[in-house]
Amino acid sequence: MRTTGPRAFWLSFFITLGVVLPLMGSFALYAVRQKEDAAPAQQPQSGVPVRTPGPEHCCNLLVAVAGENPAFVLLRLDAVQNILVVQALPGQSVLLGQSGPVLLADSYAAAGPARAAELLGQTLGVPIHRYLALTAESLCAALEKIGLVRLNLTGLLTEEEQADLGLAGPVQEYSPQTAAEFLAGMDARLPPDRAGALRAAVWEAFLRQNLEALPAALPDGLRSVSSRLLTDLTAADLYTLGQTLNFLAAGPAGAAPLPGAGAEGEAEASPLEDGALRITAGVLPGRWNPQSGRYEFDEEAAALAVQLFGAQPTPAPSAAPEPSPASPQNALETPAGRGEGDAAGQGEGMPQASLASPQTAAPA
Question: pTM of the predicted model, to two decimals?
Answer without folding.
Answer: 0.71
